[in-house]
């Protein structure tokens, strides 16, 4: 960047102190709007005198009563950047005090007649000035024309087209960057998980895989199947399961298409391979065993499953997990019911469907 300081171009000091500014939204581009002689383009020695003349005309303006040259910077046809008010000071060129505080003002020595087209060096200088104001003056990313937000023809059609094109540096590649390769379809998750002794996920095999596939199709998540689901878990199973997970609100790795116990329960209403516990059997045991001989078993195998769950949850000492739904087990179940928020007769230790299903999650399937 060819920066020409105020001393170097022979600026006069401002009439009054300039208003400081710390940030702007960016830069507005201006042109002189009067005739700029074509000969200027061939004679850089005329540029500094032109700056002095420009400043003098602003200082003498009877209407505006400028403190200084109105522009933040001016760029000559040779690409030199002349410091006007400079970074850190409010411009006087954008139309009113709000606009002047909103953007810096950079003017190109381009006219409405004579030199009407900016030279490539000049466009490069404008980019230099913009980058300098961003670095030194807190200028934001915007590059606009004076006419943006104010009724004026400034900065003229050629410069305004350049602004609208994004104020590119001449010679910089204008062709858009080559399109990035579209991202490859990510490979669906390819791992297996075991739930109640049965495998799910890529490569899993068995009737539980078909059960999942058929349930997915039934619920409308079958679009990735070219042929119907079978007992081998392949990518389409994963993709369909992923859509089911997403429909439940899961995201990221929680929706990778490999089942977890909660989504599997929601999909199937049960977990394949889980033992079944009859609600009626458990109620009968809870009503019979406490009054019978110590250790009496009514449906011992099913009671043992429920007792194990109560122990796992911390409501029953493992010593009482004996298959008999005795007094201690009733007390333990009552504690579990209270833990769920039940009170009174609803927390009497005799299982109901709702509490038993809560206890069953991930452990057993409740049947009638
Ligand atoms: Zn202007
Ligand atoms: Zn010049």
How would you explain this protein's 3D organization?
The chain has 368 residues and is an alpha/beta fold. The chain has three domains: 2-164, Lysozyme-like, CATH 3.40.80; 192-268, Muramoyl-pentapeptide Carboxypeptidase, domain 1, CATH 1.10.101.10; 276-367, no CATH class. Helix content is 34%, strand content 13%. It has twelve helices and twelve strands. It has a six-stranded mixed beta sheet. A two-stranded parallel ribbon has the order 3-7. Strand 9 (192-195) and strand 10 (198-201) form a beta hairpin. The longest helix has 18 residues, at 120-137. The protein is elongated and about 115 Å long. The protein starts with a strand and ends with a strand. The model has no long low-confidence stretch (mean pLDDT 93). The structure holds zinc ion (ZN) (2 copies). One zinc ion is lined by residues 30, 93, 146, 152, 154-155.
Number of beta-strand segments: 12
H-E string? EHEEHEEHEEHEHEEHHHEHHHHE
Report the mean per-residue pLDDT as an integer.
93
Query: What percentage of residues falls in helices of 4 or more residues?
Result: 25-40%
Gap between N and C termini, in Å? Answer: 85 Å
Low-confidence stretches: none
Shape call: elongated
The number of distinct structural domains comes to 3
CATH fold call of the largest domain: Lysozyme-like
Q: Total helix count? A: 12
Query: What is the correct CATH architecture of the largest domain?
Result: 3-Layer(aba) Sandwich
Radius of gyration: 40 Å
């Amino acid at each position: 960047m060819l920066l020409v300081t105020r001393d170097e171009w022979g600026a006069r000091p401002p009439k009054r102190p300039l208003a400081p500014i710390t940030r702007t939204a960016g830069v507005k581009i201006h042109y002189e709007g009067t005739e700029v002689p074509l000969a200027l383009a061939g004679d850089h020695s005329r540029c500094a005198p032109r700056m002095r003349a420009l400043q003098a005309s602003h200082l003498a303006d009877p209407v505006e009563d400028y403190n200084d040259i109105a522009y933040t910077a001016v760029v000559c046809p040779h690409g030199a950047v002349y410091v006007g008010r400079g970074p850190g000071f409010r411009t006087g060129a954008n139309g009113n005090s709000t606009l002047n505080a909103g953007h810096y003002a950079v003017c190109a020595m381009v006219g409405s007649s004579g030199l009407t087209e900016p030279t490539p060096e000049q466009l490069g200088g404008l980019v230099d000035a913009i980058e300098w104001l961003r670095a030194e003056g807190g200028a934001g990313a915007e590059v606009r024309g004076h006419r943006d937000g104010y009724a004026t023809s400034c900065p003229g059609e050629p410069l305004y087209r350049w602004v609208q094109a994004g104020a590119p540096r001449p010679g910089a590649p204008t062709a858009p960057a080559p399109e990035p390769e579209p991202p490859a379809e990510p490979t669906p998750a390819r791992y297996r998980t075991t739930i109640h002794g049965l495998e799910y996920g890529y490569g899993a095999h068995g009737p539980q895989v078909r059960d999942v596939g058929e349930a997915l199709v039934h619920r409308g998540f079958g679009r990735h199947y070219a042929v119907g689901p079978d007992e081998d878990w392949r990518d389409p199973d994963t993709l369909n399961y992923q859509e089911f997970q997403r429909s439940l609100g899961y995201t990221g790795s929680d929706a990778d298409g490999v089942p977890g116990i909660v989504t599997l329960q929601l999909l199937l209403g049960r977990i394949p391979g889980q033992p079944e516990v009859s609600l009626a059997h458990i109620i009968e045991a809870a009503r019979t065993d406490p009054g019978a001989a110590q250790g009496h078993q009514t449906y011992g195998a099913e009671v043992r499953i429920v007792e194990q769950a109560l122990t796992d949850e911390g409501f029953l000492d493992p010593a009482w997990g004996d298959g008999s739904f005795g007094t201690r087990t009733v007390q333990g179940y009552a504690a579990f019911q209270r833990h769920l928020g039940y009170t009174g007769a609803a927390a009497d230790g005799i299982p109901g469907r709702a509490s038993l299903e809560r206890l069953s999650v991930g452990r057993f399937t409740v049947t009638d």
